User: Which sequence fits this backbone?
């Protein structure tokens, strides 16, 4: 199976380095992405738009040899979800790790502070204890660089409701599947569209918000099982 891995805020393809070997050993063809604006800490992000990040994921799907398993992490879930909308017929299944899919008009990082063209990483001290469970601070902070500030102001444009029929797995790390299902039952705004998905499942992966760093083998096993091989 072709697997495309989409990182979340402040991270590039290297954030998946501990996961990729497990997937390739299982026989998969894996591509971890560095989204536009995340090439380096010094990159010029002034001309990078939300649509550019979605287009990068769409391009990776187009370059695969067949239907892909698409995996997004955190804010990368929304970017991945927008790519599903653009390539419904080319995505065999989608996995959202610590996040949820995009919806039309959704601004992915609207509440984050910016610094010019940059969306700087949140300081370690401001994360909840549950977020950084099992996480090595030095290793984590060495990976970080700003994301594009456009993520705080530009909405997703989606138009293919067949995306709701793509098999979808929600991986729950610093919260539980029961927590997420409770938010859905309460019609919480960020997850209000989840019940529209017709082929939906949940799995717990107890750790912090970055299981690709803290539980890579376990996350890879979940991804591998999702492919149905």
Assistant:
């Amino acid at each position: 199976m072709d697997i495309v891995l989409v990182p979340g805020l402040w991270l590039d393809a290297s954030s998946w380095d501990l996961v990729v070997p497990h997937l390739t050993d299982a026989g998969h063809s894996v591509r971890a992405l560095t989204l536009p604006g995340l090439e380096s800490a010094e990159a010029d992000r002034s001309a990078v738009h939300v649509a550019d990040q979605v287009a990068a994921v769409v391009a990776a799907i187009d370059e695969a040899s067949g239907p892909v398993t698409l995996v997004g992490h955190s804010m990368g879930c929304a970017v991945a979800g927008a790519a599903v909308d653009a390539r419904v017929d080319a995505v065999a299944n989608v996995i959202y790790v610590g996040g949820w899919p995009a919806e039309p008009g959704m601004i992915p990082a609207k509440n984050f502070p910016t610094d010019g063209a940059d969306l700087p990483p949140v300081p370690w001290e401001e994360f909840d204890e549950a977020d950084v469970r099992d996480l090595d601070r030095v290793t984590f902070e060495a990976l970080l660089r700003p994301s594009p500030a456009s993520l705080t102001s530009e909405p997703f444009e989606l138009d293919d409701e067949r995306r709701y029929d793509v098999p979808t797995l929600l991986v729950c790390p610093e919260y539980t599947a029961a927590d997420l299902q409770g938010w859905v039952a309460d019609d919480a705004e960020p997850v209000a569209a989840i019940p529209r998905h017709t082929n939906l499942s949940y799995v717990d992966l107890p750790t912090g918000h970055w299981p690709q760093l803290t539980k890579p083998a376990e996350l890879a096993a979940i991804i591998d099982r999702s492919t149905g091989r």
